[in-house]
């Protein structure tokens, strides 16, 4: 994990990031300096993410400009997110039943039990306690571990795998490659074990579905398992840490209602997911297979397109400024924080459920919870494409 350079200004909290006013598609640059098109209005971004003429697979063909300076899981061509058409659908079908709202509703009681167990433990800790170490991290780790049948011996390695799988380019390339090789071996061993002795876990279901589907390359299954392991806890941990910093630091007036009303907590979770991005890089990248008109502008064939979901989520034509920061107001349109179209995040309903239960029960159990230090003194977890507090001291 990298550390913050003390000579540079401290990063802004994620809820304070500045977003330009969305507008028509315009030329832009990739992080590495290559040409791209920026799409930022809500309807335009939805079109890019939903239109099959904008894909991911062509970003990784031989000769394509690299999207990252070091290897990482996100830019692995075998990852489901980087497949298009039949290849993508074949992989997605192996998981589509696992994360439906009905399936997550069945999991809700045991997720709630994990939340209560962690809150019981937090209550015994000396104050100020670190709510990241005691709650925001162990909750999603425990949830994804139960779903996938992972032993506790793997829990400690999950953070190291995540930090390298989602590296922002500041890690040494050889080190990242070494860690990802170890991680892939772990995923391959899990698949082998579940084929030999299947259980009731998600990986066993994945193996059975893949065998029934047929034609799914083993490398893609390994990447899928690895993506579930790290993605299944990193995003929720990030959301929860950033949400607590925002709510306790600047929106403390929401805390009583959050603890008293679980339904209101669900609307607040939706609004926070919508408003607070997971990381500083907000563009979802696509490749244009042919000339396509977006918002009255022709995107040429072969162009790389950055669909900025953060700007689109603040489009005043869709999300009125008067209610944008009303945390208990229902969203006026579906958020783009989970994407849209064929690559819409499969884990969206699970993430929302975890965030709702975690915030509601934390506020109910600890009505006097407060930050132990000002928001501007937080030390950030850096070195990955997601960003949240490295620790967060709280008292009650």
Strand order of the largest sheet: 1-2-8-5-3
Number of helices: 14
Overall pLDDT metric: 91
Main β-sheet: number of strands, strand sense, barrel status?
5 strands, mixed
What is the strand content? 5-15%
The helical percent reads 40-55%
| String of helices and strands | EEHEHHEHHHHHHHHEEEEHHHEEEE
> Could you give the distance between the termini?
30 Å
Strand element count: 12
- Computed Rg: 21 Å
Shape: globular
What structural class results from the helix and strand content?
alpha+beta
| Poorly predicted parts | 1-8
Outline the structure in words.
This protein is α+β, with helices and mostly antiparallel strands and 396 residues long. It has 14 helices and twelve strands. The protein has helices spanning 42-50, 85-93, 101-123, 131-136, 138-148, 155-165, 173-196, 202-213, 218-250, 255-260, 262-275, 309-312, 321-324, 348-365, and strands at residues 26-29, 35-39, 54-55, 129-130, 283-288, 292-294, 297-299, 304-308, 370-371, 380-381, 388-389, 393-395. The strands form four sheets. A five-stranded mixed β-sheet has the order 1-2-8-5-3. A hairpin with a 2-residue loop joins strand 6 and strand 7. The chain is globular. Residues 1-8 have low confidence and may be disordered.
